[in-house]
Design brief:
The chain is mainly alpha-helical. The protein contains twelve helices and no strands. It is 73% helix and 0% strand.
Length: 233
């Protein structure tokens, strides 16, 4: 690695420091949910190492706790992570030309936060090494939080571990909020999805109700919801 690339990597790590402060507590919250769902410390940490998607991991842990079917959990996390295809495309379009292995490694590091940090910057933010620096910082913090939460599960008071169950809802709200202000149609779609899921839970398993309501309302929303266009150049 050249000196320039090393500097870009360190710049990326420094840029990711504020995100690290938020990832650790969320990682702890996920780990507590996963342990409550019956996963071991090793299984809890392995999911963070290989999946690396906070909202999806929390949802999977919640579905495991509700005894959701394996196929339903896989499909639900797949649907939730579809947005990463669009985000990865934007990141790769903005990124300076580089080798395929580095692009694949960078693609694994695309999260809502790393995507926002990379696509809203200028100059050096186009470098794959700058992005990998961001990825390294927040990936390590996410897994550190997971490890701390998994190990501390048995030491935390019951009232605290029970309260961490709202983390899943807080995660989903944080994903939705940037687009909700001034977009009544999107807000209406969110309410429609919640209503649809509530009704479907009466006639089918909650895990499948989540998938069906998400796909159905996403299809309906594609005809009338308009999201704000942003430039990533």
């Amino acid at each position: 690695m050249t000196e320039k690339n090393r500097e870009l990597l360190l710049d990326g790590v420094r840029a990711g420091l504020p995100i690290m402060l938020g990832y650790v507590p969320i990682g702890i919250a996920y780990a507590v949910m996963a342990r409550q769902a019956g996963l071991t410390v090793g299984q809890t940490c392995l999911m963070s190492i290989t999946v690396y998607a906070g909202a999806s991991q929390m949802m999977a842990a919640g579905m495991l706790a509700d005894h959701g079917a394996f196929l339903a959990i896989v499909l639900a996390t797949f649907v939730l992570n579809l947005r990463h295809i669009i985000m990865s495309t934007c990141v790769m379009h903005r990124m300076e030309p580089t080798s395929l292995p580095l692009r694949l490694l960078a693609a694994f590091g695309v999260t809502d936060e790393s995507f926002a940090l990379f696509t809203t910057g200028t100059g050096k933010s186009r470098s794959v090494f700058f992005f990998l620096g961001i990825h390294a910082a927040i990936y390590l913090s996410w897994n550190l939080g997971t490890l701390l939460g998994a190990l501390a599960m048995d030491l935390l008071p019951p009232i605290l571990t029970a309260s961490l169950g709202i983390s899943l809802y807080a995660m989903f709200i944080s994903i939705l909020m940037p687009d909700l202000p001034g977009n009544g149609k999107l807000a209406l779609l969110v309410l429609l999805t919640a209503l649809c899921n509530t009704l479907l839970c009466r006639v089918m398993a909650s895990s499948w109700a989540l998938i069906v309501s998400t796909l159905l309302c996403a299809f309906v929303g594609s005809f009338f919801v308009e999201l704000k266009e942003e430039s990533y150049e």
